[in-house]
Amino acid sequence: MGYLVGVTALWAFSFSLIGVYLAGQVDSYFAVLVRVTLAMLVFLPFLRPSLLRGKQRLALMALGAIQLGIMYTFFYHSFLLLSVPEVLLFTIFTPVYIALLDDLMFKRFTPIYLVTAILAVLGAGVIRYDGIDSGFWLGFLVVQGANLCFAIGQVGYRRLAADLPPTLAWHNVFGWFFIGAMLVALPAFLLFGNSAALPSITLQWGVLAWLGLVASGVGYFAWNQGATRVDAGTLAIMNNALVPAGLVVNLVIWNRDADVGKLLLGAAIMGASLWLNHWWLQRRKVAAA
């Protein structure tokens, strides 16, 4: 739990750093490439290939490609379409995706998840009810792409860890995670990146260095380690703890313009969807007891 709390505090600043200093100024594909490269360099010196079998290495690389490489590509593009508070609020769907993926894995279906998802979409509409446009909904869908990738990565990492020795030194194998992310980030930049939109000031390079070395390198290692040490319910809750933490950082430190009333109302509806989801899960546990 301590890992998840610490990373939540760390990542709370990342949203605003991206939204204020990078979005619309630095090519998103380049930003993703730099973050992944720096994070990979943190763990390459510790890499011990002999600790994992070939399929296990490929599985960890695939998780990195999805949870970091593809997710970051979606994530950075969302800041071009939405404000920082909106991006934060729309990450609230991740726990639902975790639950749905768990249902899929165990071949069952829980209709209540569809109800809670519809409520959350309603909350998203309230936030911009007087200014909904195609860009807003496109941004909403892009964030959901990032959420889904993050959820797949977490569930997959937990499953992989369960099949590995509990004494495994994860810092000696986690480099494969970032190598997998690099296999997505590098081709994406080469194919779609804009070399004319690279960082132009020292501050932007500094932000990228912080995001790559600390938020990505240390952050993803600690978060995934924490994900293997708690139950799925706690993991789902901690996925949403980032939302209020990030909003506080953005609105208090950067003082971004936002209609706080609409944000609170939309967040309340989203919160109600999560409460309904939690209530149903608790009821199902009691009935099964």
From TrEMBL:
Q: Quick check: keyword Chloroplast in the entry?
A: no
For this UniProt entry, which segments traverse the membrane? 29-46, 58-75, 81-100, 112-129, 135-157, 169-191, 203-223, 235-254, 260-281
Provide GO CC annotations from the record.
plasma membrane
Q: Which residues form the EamA domain?
A: 3-127
The UniProt entry lists membrane topology as: Multi-pass membrane protein
Which superkingdom, per the lineage? Answer: Bacteria
InterPro entries assigned to the protein according to its UniProt record, in alphabetical order: CO/AA/NH_transpt (IPR004779), EamA_dom (IPR000620), EmrE-like (IPR037185)
Where located? Answer: Cell membrane
Task: Alphabetically list the UniProt keywords.
Answer: Cell membrane, Membrane, Repeat, Transmembrane, Transmembrane helix, Transport
Annotated NCBIfam families: 2A78 (TIGR00950)
* PANTHER family recorded: ACYL-MALONYL CONDENSING ENZYME-RELATED, BIOTIN TRANSPORTER
Which protein are we looking at? Membrane protein
